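Many introductory courses stop at the sequence. We go one step further.
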Amino acid sequence: MAVNLSAVLLFGAALAFLLRAKTLSAGAALVALLFGFYLARTGVAPLLSSAVSSVFTALSHIH
C-alpha cells in the first residue's frame, strides 16, 4: 500500500508539473488518466504493480 500511495503521489506531482508548465495539455492528461484506470482493470495490472514495486525496492537499496 505504501508503494502504491507514493507512486500515485509521484505521478500526480509529475502530471501537475507538466500541466502547470504547459508541456502537457489538459486533454492529453485526461487521456493518460483514463488509460491508467482502464489499464488497472486488465490482466497486466499485477505485472505492472510488481515491476513498479521492484524498481522502488531496487532504488531503496542504492547507497
